[in-house]
Amino acid sequence: MTGPQADYIKQVGQNIAVQSGLSNSASAFNVTLLNSSVNNAFAIPGGYVYVTRQLVALMNNEAELAGVLGHEVGHVAARHSKQRQNAATRNSVLGALGSILSGVLLGNNALGQLGQQVFSTAPQLLTLKYSRKQETEADRLGVQYLRNAGYDPHAMATVLQSLAAQEALDARLAGRDATLPEWASSHPDPASRAQGANSLAGNLTGVTNRDTFLTRIDGVIYGDDPHQGVVEGNTFIHPDLRLTFTVPQGYYMVNGSTEVSVNGQSGQAQLTTAAFDGNLENYVRQAFQTIGGRNQLAPQNLQRTRINGLETLIGTSRVNSSQGAVDVTVVAYQFANNQAYHFASIAPAGQAAVFNPMYNSMRRISAQEAAQVIPRRIDVVTARSGDTVQSLANRMAYSDAQMDRFRVLNGLSANAQVVPGEKYKIVVRGS
């Protein structure tokens, strides 16, 4: 992303990165604000630091922003990235069928995670993340950088608390368990780490620059960017691509910039696209090859049909593994002579039909429907006399859990009240 918000993030990130001693020049660090609705941040050797706008929107002051960016730089300073790469190399033994989903495994997406759970003899391969020891060390360095820069070192703990609260809320709203195995999370167990970060900060204090931070992030997109498609409950709608579909009850979606992952207990799927030469059969066969990688997976059955006016080709294949048979399905839709989209799914043998309602819901949308998709944005407001958590939460652009969303967004505990004259974030609709 570019613009004033990105410039502000860059400035804060460069200033805190200098505290690492990796370079004495702030300009040596390339800090980027990513247009993503996922709460994430990371850094790689060479001075590259990244944070998503969604994670920035969850923060409540500049010290929290500096703490997160400092934590990521701390991973680089401690050479954790190199250690993690070496560990992944040591564990890179897959069975023959383990590479059936190699194409999606390399993308580290939902299908890949399921593929590892079903096939892999090394479950942590490619989803191997920083260990608890490495996270603790990066937290320690982040707190140290905050202290050296004059920020309140307790900010590391407060942002971890907000992240834990957001993860728990997201899980509850999606109807899934909030507890994930550590290797499935890029930053494991923020709730327990928050206590450790608070202890590291001790009795020290410093600046937070809360008002400056909130003023600078006012208006940032929150949640999905319509240009990348929008998840609303069980429905995905993409106004630019002019398509929509609905997932079954009990499943939740994770929207990426180039794909949508669909996750549930009885299988996982992904919507994406690929090069299309006008021949749907070629397209489906190529999708199977991409999924299969070196194993040259091919459809065992092909079925032509039309779904909501779209020419559709369905390919299926059953694959045996030591842990049981699974069904791999590719459903491709032709939207134009040079454009097609497809679902790729995997489910235990005999349960592939769980996704049939989703396949049958795919349809084109009209220009009028597309125009009605308006992004959500952060709106920073100042509480007035008489305002309450309830009154401000009622202004949130959601039909459910307004108070819970407001409290998590603003780092408020269950009993905390708004203070007149203080700034708070709400989420509104705005172009």
TrEMBL record:
Residues 379-426 form the LysM domain. Keywords: Hydrolase, Metal-binding, Metalloprotease, Protease, Zinc. The keyword Iron-sulfur does not apply. It comes from the Bacteria. Pfam families: Peptidase_M48. Residues 182-202 are annotated as: Disordered. PROSITE patterns: LYSM (PS51782). InterPro entries: LysM (IPR018392), Mito/Outer_Membr_Metalloprot (IPR051156), Peptidase_M48 (IPR001915). Belongs to the peptidase M48 family. This is M48 family metalloprotease. It comes from Croceibacterium selenioxidans.
